[in-house]
Amino acid sequence: MPEWPKNEQPREKLRLYGARALSDAELLAIFLRVGVKGKSAVSLAEDLLRQFGNLPRLLACSPEEFIQVHGMGLSKWSQIQAAYELVKRSLEERLAQDSVFSSPSQVREFLQAKIGALPHEVFLCLYLDSRFHLIECQELFRGSITHTAVYPREILKEALARNASALVVAHNHPSGNPLPSESDQDLTKTLIKALQLVDIPLLDHCIVSGTGFFSFSDAGLMKID
User: What backbone torsions phi and psi does residue 35 show, to the nearest 5 degrees?
Assistant: First the structure.
């Protein structure tokens, strides 16, 4: 982008003002690095955002979908995916170092980055130690766009195998609506009762979408009759 004023070029703008000063398209342009004939890297980034609608959908797209956009190839898709994976790993490491209660926003950020944009449902278990630090995040079940079969016995087995002292579970709603269904509420009650048998508290059940988040704990729905 040599024709731009230097202080308006994305890399220079980032250096001078910090990453928060850049738009989504400008941040993407830094990874794309160069444009194509007649289009700057920023213009290409804007094309990507228009094609996929938002960042979560772009980050979750397949390589086949990505290369349908003019000027995009597997190399650029790989660069963006590598950066996205680094973000997810960084968030996971922070949960391993700090109690999940020290910053609930970290849990939300991690879960939304991990599963919020997926086109199918997955069910995660976050196994915690006695200080509520993350031992491991495991994708235990995977399903269709609208349904995932969850087996409490498997959750108990995996929690005991990791010597977990507490548990947070989460799943995503690809529909975009993070509000719990009746089956989600029934599952939560079943898991609470099952985990009580082995003295492992279920701290929360989180439902995630690309732009939404629901916490059973925040909503006061972790109590059972």
Answer: -95, -160
Taking the C-alpha atoms of residue 26 and residue 112, their distance in angstroms, rounded to an integer, is: 22
Separation CA 100–CA 156 (nearest Å): 20
Q: What is the pLDDT of residues 132-190, one digit of tens each?
A: 999 999 999 887 656 667 888 999 999 999 999 999 999 999 888 999 999 999 999 99
pLDDT, one tens digit per residue, over 143-158 is 765 666 788 899 999 9
Architecture of domain 99-215: 3-Layer(aba) Sandwich (3.40)
Fold of 6-85: DNA polymerase; domain 1 (1.10.150)
Task: Name every residue whose Cβ is closer than 8 Å to that of residue 168 and which is 6 or more positions away in sequence.
Answer: 100, 107, 125, 126, 128, 202, 203, 204, 205, 206
Cα–Cα distance measured from residue 214 to residue 177, given in angstroms and rounded to the nearest whole number: 9
- pTM of the full structure: 0.72
